[in-house]
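ok so i was messing around last nite and threw this chain in just to see what happens. nothing serious, just curious
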Amino acid sequence: MALLEIDDIHVFYDSIEALKGISIAVESKQIVTLVGANGAGKTTTLHAISGLLRPRSGQIRLAGESLGEMPPHEIAGRGVMQVPEGRRIFARLTVEENLAMGAFTRSDRQGIAEDKERMLTLFPRLRERLKQVAGTLSGGEQQMVATARALMGRPRVLLMDEPSMGLSPVLVDQVFETIRAINEQGVTILLVEQNALMALGIADYGYVMESGRIVLTGRGQDLLADENVQRAYLG
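result:
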């Protein structure tokens, strides 16, 4: 049994079918990526997992437990944390306060303090910016805050939505190095990313989406070598 299972879900925006029966499996401690063009349904998939959208049919399960009718805060309490597209940090709060918000479901003060120190070790720049208002940070620093905030919830599954969007090539490399480091610490990651080359390069397994459907699946390295993927997404 996979840690996270999406089984034949259909999601609609009013009468428009955005997800047309997709199925995805994410094994524990894997990096699994969804790649595809804008409008393919990648972010919609993450929103369905998080409970922000309700599938009209199909199942989403975490370790065999249906997330079905759970509200988003209960799903987060089960350990499904999301780093949203565009960061969406609490811009008027400090970096330190943003990290505290990531632990809102927890009450273990000692563990929270230990995880905060772990985040500041993983992202040394944030230690220098701890008391700074988060909205004044650079794009790369805000991405660090958004990722650290999600990790403060001790996720069983970390959902990452376009973490490289709007960043310089140097920062993009750093983001993917960080994703690999987080995974090596035992965190399971479902990654949505337009940068197919980078995403498939670090993924254990990948799914290619087009118009709300999964059109191709395989190991990350196998998809990188696939002529259809190369032609459509790698130039």
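not much to say yet. Residues 169-184 form the longest helix (16 residues).
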